[in-house]
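To the wet lab folks,

You asked to see what we're planning to order before we commit. Fair enough. Below is the target structure as tokens, and below that is the sequence we designed to fit it. If anything looks off to you, flag it before the synthesis order goes out.
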């Protein structure tokens, strides 16, 4: 029980650190060695995973503050993560990367799946609600 209280108090800091990490990794260009073969859609999997995690963290923070799972809280989490992803995509051309609509779609898919998983988990285990 003590560990749970410690985690709940750290959730806002964990969310901010996660968002800063996602933004930083979105703006830098990671080059792979020439002999490394990644699938062409690997980038979309990374986007999906980033926003899957972010939507879960945002839902958890909202759930902790409101002590409930509400429809509008889920919509708010989706709006925040979608806006964050679009903002990053719009800024990327100024950092040497390119704008890609399919990245936004991958972000959106990660958001939706993350919110659904969070709601199902929270309804079953009540971890973030007292």
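Sequence we intend to order:
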């Amino acid at each position: 029980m003590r560990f749970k209280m410690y985690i709940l108090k750290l959730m806002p800091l964990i969310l901010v650190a996660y968002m800063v990490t996602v933004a930083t990794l979105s703006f830098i260009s990671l080059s792979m060695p020439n002999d490394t073969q990644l699938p062409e859609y690997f980038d979309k999997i990374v986007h999906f995973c980033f926003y899957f995690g972010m939507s879960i963290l945002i839902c958890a923070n909202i759930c902790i503050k409101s002590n409930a799972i509400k429809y509008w809280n889920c919509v708010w989490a989706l709006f925040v993560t979608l806006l964050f992803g679009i903002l990053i995509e719009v800024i990327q051309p100024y950092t040497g990367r390119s704008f890609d609509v399919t990245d936004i779609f991958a972000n959106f898919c990660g958001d939706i799946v993350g919110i659904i998983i969070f709601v199902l988990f929270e309804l079953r285990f009540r971890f973030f609600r007292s």
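Structural context that might help your review: The mean pLDDT is 90. Helices lie at 2-27, 42-66, 71-91, 101-125.

Thanks,
Computational group
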